[in-house]
Request: fold
Amino acid sequence: MGIREAIAVALGTLRAHKLRSFLTLLGVIISVCTLVAVVAMVQGVNTYVGSKIARLGSNIFSVSQFSLNEMTNPVRFMRARETNPIIRYQDYQFLRANARLPRAIGAQTQRTGTVKHNGRSLDEVNISGVTPNVLGMSAFQVANGRFLAPTDEQRRAYVAFVGPDIVTHLFGGANPLGRHILVSGQQYEIIGVATAQGDVFGQSQDNFVMIPLRTYQKIYGNQDSITLDVQARGARLLPATMDEMEMLMRVRRHLSWNEKNNFGIIGSDALMTLWHTLTGAIASVMVGVSFVFLVVGGIVIMNIMLAAVTERTQEVGMRKAVGARRSDILWQFLVESAVLSTVGGLIGVLLAYLFTLAAGALTPIPFSLPLGAVVLAVVISTLVGLFFGVYPASKAARLTPIAALHSEV
Amino acid sequence: MATPTIHQPSATTATPYAGDREVVIRTENLWKIYQMGSEQVAALRGVNLQIYRNEYVAIMGPSGSGKSTLMNLIGCLDSPTRGEYWLSGHLVSALDDDELARIRNQEIGFVFQTFNLLPRTSALHNVELPLIYSGAPPAERTERAMAALQQVDLGSRVHHKPNELSGGQRQRVAIARALVNRPSIILADEPTGNLDSTTSNEIMALLEVLWERGNTIVLVTHEHDIAEHAHRVIHIRDGQVAGDTRTRRGDAVANRPPAPPA
Ligand SMILES: Nc1ncnc2c1ncn2[C@@H]1O[C@H](COP(=O)(O)OP(=O)(O)OP(=O)(O)O)[C@@H](O)[C@H]1O
Ligand SMILES: [Mg+2]
Reply:
């Protein structure tokens, strides 16, 4: 019996038992859907984050209290907390005084807090103390008014540059320039508003208040570590600039040649690498989960195929009575099981496609269905059908033709 | 040892035609014992038979005497517990599974009392089945299945499903399926058992045509007037051959001059 007949028989059976087939295939459908959707999601998010990080400026890196390596490993982080001093304003001044290669060095530190105005309040706002030159090094731009100026820094002025969320939530969208907000018991005059950036993973990027770094330290003390943003004079000079900053930091910290850095230098490529490790971990967990579904789905298929063999003992007997070989029957049930499972895989891909369409419409993330993942998922679902069909099919193949005579048409 | 395995030609084995004709079915001391839990049921107890090419044989006997069991062994649908069976000179017990499948496909056409059609597929596809397993190309398959259906007078019903056909029509589909691969032997186990007498006569007329074309026909029946269509009646009782007689039609055929060899 050729594959065309076998597939036709299989599809006929599927059509005859639509609901049962669908329920049977649920495991495969879910697993293929998760598999494809997760790959699509990771890919889309990676593209998105990649473009976000690129917007930060590829020639920018940070000097911070901890390296990425330390931040992503609990054990190393605990150790680094003992060894790595916080980065202080004096370090910032030292680097600015001694570095030759960077175009600019900015500094910032932050915490979350509540912002109030006129009885209204907004929680979980990112309160940052920044130097005026971070403007050119970050994603936001000035929509209204002006950014913090060097004079604000020198005067330690109580002025604030705010994200659009502050305007919508505390001022009902009205022009806030020249008006005041209350942060940690201190009044600040709003001097500028940033352009909207939207959400990243449901986390608003517009929910911030920026004040001069010196003002920040006057209010909150200087126990919060500062992060330095360093801009190189072009991509070619980036490695040399990073080396210079590392060297200067080691000099300032009096580290001898055999001591490790007790600070971190974080470039955007390192960030991207970190990001990939993170999404990779999420993806592998999801892929693991979907494989569990797949095995469960396979076992359900095996069960339903065993039931089909029992149900169709008479058919098998009749087929053998008119000349079907063992291999014909084996083939028939294997193909049926594989077709069943592949149809499940295709439905799963369809659902994943709908999911990416919906997710693409609801988020700024550019989702697309990765062809490789689709092909892989369908092939895997076929293989699952074949694998879990072997036992039922060989059971059917071993039936004797005489079985045909023991039931009715 | 309870059963002798030495070949002893049974006294009841009639040879209505002289030995110059080819023996297509020969059984020797055929036993079939079914195991029912701890109990053993001997359905056949040493059956010796010879059936010649182009014979038309009816098997009769009371219910439970072993007729169907014997037919299944002859049709290579089941294997005996003891004894030997030669089909066209081949020792069946020596054949492997694929060779048996080929025999069921090409040498033997089996017609069941309960038709045994695929319920959800058309008459045409049902008749095509043996051709699928013999590897005929699709175009030829359809053509031959159509021809077989026309032969049983169902040319206008090819796309009907079994539940859209009458009992007689279903049995004719089953006969078309049995003859589509042009087997030389047609085995029919109570082919008219579920049909009324008019429909039965139609089926018997079909078998008559097949016989005239040179087929060997073995049929099981309970009814004497059905058995009268055959030329020879083998009586089975308690799993043994209890009689082997020529019918009136058999006498008439025997007195006809022998057909020239093909
Ligand atoms: N699969 C089986 N398992 C156990 N016993 C069986 C089986 N098939 C048949 N038998 C027994 O073997 C004996 C012969 O059965 P068989 O079907 O050959 O009779 P039969 O002559 O065809 O009867 P009927 O005229 O009713 O069709 C019976 O006693 C029956 O109960
Ligand atoms: Mg019977």
